[in-house]
Design a protein that fits this description.
With 315 residues, the chain is mainly alpha-helical. It has one domain. Helix 1 crosses helix 11, helix 3 crosses helix 8 and helix 5 crosses helix 7. The longest helix has 43 residues. The N and C termini lie far apart (44 Å).
Length: 315
């Protein structure tokens, strides 16, 4: 009897250990990707200021996609399984999550000229509001009863995060207003992309989804750059710019997305949401360490309230 009980306990203990290991790995992976995104938004991408936004977005997708094409060449075989709806959905993901969303946030970071960088990054945390709203409309997902309360609180907090207790002055605060609106547009775009990605992930794994998201975005941005004559920007791209393109491409770009999805497969959504708090925290930290910027007490409280509201919406 004693040995029989022991034989039952040991597998259970082992399963618990495996679950705990997966939880630690998943939480660490999501936390690392969040830190990378915070570092990118405050330290790396703003250093590309001076180049055309569309050209920057093209390079941030072209370089990672070129690398993925080498190591993930087999993904091209998936094209024979594509249906018309798959092409449409991947195009929508590329338009919103790749082209429009990235252009909006990059332009917002350029506009503030190293001032209020963490504010611009934090405003992206409004993304769940748009993702949940669109999921309810397009995917017929049930919206929480208290959605309006938490969404309203987050929007109000985002105003105080941007302007504090002051009314915005169109002349003096023009770039801040534009940057805030672009950051919100980026949140909407990334939220839309999340909804479309859910549809794609019903038929494809995350590696395939990431590969074609970058591929379709590269094609769209290449057309943009050619049509608007922005290809001449390559003549103004110096060694520092090329180093940043490559660094962002393999770390905070495609690298961070792969790390994030690796973690997301191993933890529940609520734990993932909490781990993602390292994104705004790291943005504030890096903005202070690198640029000497610090949020005012009002902005700090507003940031905490906004992030808390986002957690309640995502949980």
């Amino acid at each position: 009897m004693k040995y029989g009980l022991k034989s039952l306990i040991n597998p259970t203990v082992q399963r618990m250990k495996n679950l705990n290991n997966e939880l630690v790995k998943g939480t660490a992976a999501i936390g690392l990707s969040a830190i990378l995104w915070g570092f990118d938004g405050v330290v790396l991408t703003p250093r590309l200021h001076g180049l055309d936004v569309g050209y920057v977005v093209l390079m941030l997708h072209l370089i990672p996609f070129a690398l993925m094409s080498i190591f993930m060449f087999k993904e091209y075989k998936q094209l024979k399984n594509f249906m018309r709806q798959d092409y449409i959905t991947f195009t929508l993901i590329a338009v919103f999550g790749g082209a429009l969303g990235t252009m909006a946030i990059v332009k917002a970071l350029f506009l503030v000229n190293f001032q209020n960088l963490s504010v611009v990054v934090l405003l992206q945390k409004l993304q769940p509001i748009f993702a949940i709203s669109l999921a309810a409309i397009l995917l017929k997902e049930k919206m929480k009863r208290d959605f309006a309360i938490w969404a309203s609180l987050a929007i109000i907090a985002s105003y105080f995060l941007t302007f504090g207790f002051h009314l915005p002055k169109v002349g003096a605060d023009k770039n801040t207003i534009y940057a805030a609106l672009l950051a919100i547009l980026a949140a909407f775009s990334f939220g839309s992309s999340t909804v479309f990605s859910k549809k794609v992930l019903m038929n494809f794994n995350f590696a395939t989804a990431t590969f074609y998201r970058y591929g379709f975005t590269t094609i769209i941005m290449l057309i943009y750059v050619i049509v608007f004559g922005k290809y001449t920007e390559i003549a103004h791209t110096n060694k520092i710019h090329w180093m940043l393109f490559v660094l962002i491409g393999i770390t905070t770009g495609s690298g961070a997305i792969f790390i994030y999805y690796y973690g997301l497969r191993r933890v529940k959504a609520m734990i993932a949401t909490i781990s993602e708090l390292l994104f705004p925290i790291s943005a504030i930290f890096f903005d202070y360490v690198v640029n000497g910027s610090i949020l005012s007490p009002v902005q700090m409280i507003s940031a905490v309230i906004m992030v808390f509201a986002m957690i309640k919406l995502s949980s």
